[in-house]
Amino acid sequence: MAPRDSETINWIDCAPPGKVTEINVLLSPRAAPGYDVWPGMRSMNTRLVGRFDLDGGATVWVVYHEPDAPDIQQGGPGSGSFFRGKGPSDATGNGLRMIAFGDAPDGSRVMFEGPVDISTEALANMQEAKGRIEPDL
Question: Where are the chain's structural domains?
């Protein structure tokens, strides 16, 4: 299957620079037939990816929107780890990606996924912290 050729996949384009794509999966009471409004449509300018009704009577909605990208350059409280025995020496080369989980100010859980660009200074700091950063086994 070539990208964007499937009738069963609703592709979401990448957000423009300075924005992020935020995808939400929501449950609500069953939507009324013919009801063409979804969660966050007006208040958050969300766009509908899809929806389906569950046997128990609820509706599952998948919506997305493109808020401003948060400033994650300075990091914050928390600790990092490497995946499955990887360490600072593996954080080189092109095509590096990261996943970060955290808590938003409103109490919701968030996940960020994106490219990683490691500076020489950051790599030196990781090498120095090698004993303090445990691999995620």
Answer: 22-65, 82-136
Distance CA 7, CA 1 (A): 11
Nearest by Cα to 104 from 66, 64, 70: 70
For residue 121, the 8-state DSSP code is H
Query: Would you state the structure tokens that stand for residue 116, as one six-digit string?
Result: 């990683």
Can you tell me which residue has the tokens 């609500």? 28
pLDDT at 136 over 50: no
Q: Is 48:59 a contact under the CB 8 Å cutoff?
A: no
* C-alpha span between 56 and 59 (Å, rounded): 9
> In the prediction, which pLDDT does 62 show?
92
- Distant-in-sequence, close-in-space partners of 55: CB < 8 Å, separation ≥ 6: none
Q: Is 38 within 8 Å of 63 (Cβ atoms)? A: yes
pTM over 0.70: no
CA 63 from centre of chain: 13
DSSP 53-84: E-TTSEEEEEEEE-PBPP--TT--SS---EET
